[in-house]
Design a protein that fits this description.
Layout lengths: L1 H7 L19 H17 L3 H5 L5 H17 L1
């Protein structure tokens, strides 16, 4: 699996499990950045309107995402 990722030029960001026999290297800095992005999406999904995408038009959905992002950032 790691060979395929290396061919595409991607690097592992998720840390090893403690019981892994052959641990691989990963960047703690990239893992922190990844966590920040994932947590931002999780906070946006707290808004039911965004998680279920009630809006039919893309522009209305984008406006809802922008409003929710502003509220999340403000709070």
């Amino acid at each position: 699996m790691h060979e395929e990722l290396d061919e595409r030029g991607t690097k592992p960001v998720i840390p090893n499990r403690s019981n892994r026999k052959q641990p691989f290297s990963f960047s703690k800095r990239l893992y922190k950045l990844r966590w920040r992005i994932e947590s931002a999406f999780n906070r946006l999904k707290d808004f039911r309107r965004i998680a279920t995408r009630y809006d039919k038009l893309a522009r209305n959905y984008l406006a809802s995402v922008c409003l929710a992002a502003a509220l999340v950032w403000w709070i």
